[in-house]
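Technical note accompanying the year-one report. For the benefit of new consortium partners, we illustrate the data format agreed upon in the data management plan: each record pairs a sequence with a structure-token string. No post-processing was applied to the example shown here.
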Amino acid sequence: MSDKRYDQAYFDRWYRDSARRVRAPASVARTVAMVVATAEYYLGHRLRNVLDVGCGEGAWRAPLRRLRPELDYLGLDPSEYAVARYGRARNLRLARFGQLEQLRFDRRFDLIVCSDVLHYVPAGELRRGLSGFADLLEGIAFVEVFTAADDPDGDTDGFIARRPDWYRRAFADAGLMACGSHCYLGPRLLRTVAALELAAPSARR
């Protein structure tokens, strides 16, 4: 992990090269639409703000703001290149995942996005970062993560193949409860949901 460089060459390869990128813009837009609808269903109001952790160049910002032009977007990423190039225009700031243990802002977030990040993050840093979600999250988190039970495409350099149950325990310890499709309810929403709205653990290991 320490030797991996999230520089322009990395983003050119995995985000702009149509022969290598895992997701085309249309695929990202479909995911964003699903997540916005899910968040607003549970919140009971339009999405107001989003914290995008491990945002890269801020690929979620444009499709989010096409759906909700008034939305307040903040991205965090450890890539000095991405923040230097797009930080001012896209509201990106330099931060690692583990810093969420201590980072606090002047509001909580209706939605926290963490897409295609945690399977590259060492266990200690991952747990530290997740410990901050309870304070940061007003609504739901979209935490897309792949496990030893999956066969992910794209960048596998530094991929940490953990079991699904390992993540379930880590998310539960952070106060997050699965509601399906990589979406997790934060502690403030758990009192409002019915038992069968929550995703049951899969038999797949």
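Partners are asked to follow this layout when depositing records. The longest strand covers residues 137-144.
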